[in-house]
Amino acid sequence: MKRLFILLAVLMLFSAFGYSVGQQEESNELVVYTPAPKEQVNLIVPLFQEKYGVIVHVVEAGTGELFNRIKAESANTQADIMYTGGVDSAGGFREYLDDYVSKEDANLIISAKDHPWYNATFLHPMGIIYNTNLVKEGEVKGWMDLTDPKWKGKVLMPDPRKSGSAYGELIIHLHIFGREGPGWDYFKKLYKNLVVTTSSSHTYKFVAAGEYPLGLTHERNAFKYAAAGEPVAFVYPEEGTAVRPDGIYLIKGGPNPKLAKKFIDFVLSKEIMEQLRDQGFRVNRKDVPPEAGLAPVDKIKVGPYDPVWAAENREMILKKYTEIAESN
Q: Which domains does the chain have, with CATH numbers?
């Protein structure tokens, strides 16, 4: 009986100070893991801190390194948010991410309702960059054109074992032409014409410099060079492509989930998305049109793209890729 009175007294004390049993007071500090460029971080973090009067601790590293860190820390989660990172990379770490559909979801091009484990931030249509001095307009319209023998040794692609964007390109080919035999049959033909490079940046730099006529890359890379006056143009393949999203992720078990959700909503707000668009990024928001020269998403032929399948089957896919590479 004495213990019961003590317990009741403790409960009354918590109630008097506005606490409930099991409630843990959150701090005004947020920990964000990010592989994002400095320009993004330096824009978003100070504005968020100012708006909410909080402190944001930023840990910067590569996408894979940070997701592996989230996994390693899962028994004692240290971070609240993973800001950006391709969804095909994140899919392999789905169990360490919590569901949250942003309050901004109705304004987004790609809704999170079907995949609440990520809210898409940026959209990256993949396609073909070409040098306008070496390739005539209309000469290459899609993926199949790249298998023409005349382009042997003239098509650049990064190594998908080292490049996230190249892995995404490989996944697009498998989805467009068939994830089983037909997709690999296409890639075998393509590989005969490829020059595989060790860095994603080589693709657009070398094509812009005229060292190679063609390459596989993100839309943004091509338009950035074209805007600078370089002789390059971009093709959205006629067979279809994928608008590969980067996501913002709520880390499961993070110390400050309420503030983390505010951060997600803040990043996806029209105000912030407009400023990120002005930095040259295609943002996931209906009421923020892309920069001049970029096709609206609804004008791009988009095929299926399953990032979870890509993540779960990564070892098998890269093994098949290696077999093709070593046989050529």
A: 25-122+244-294 (3.40.190.10), 125-243+302-326 (3.40.190.10)
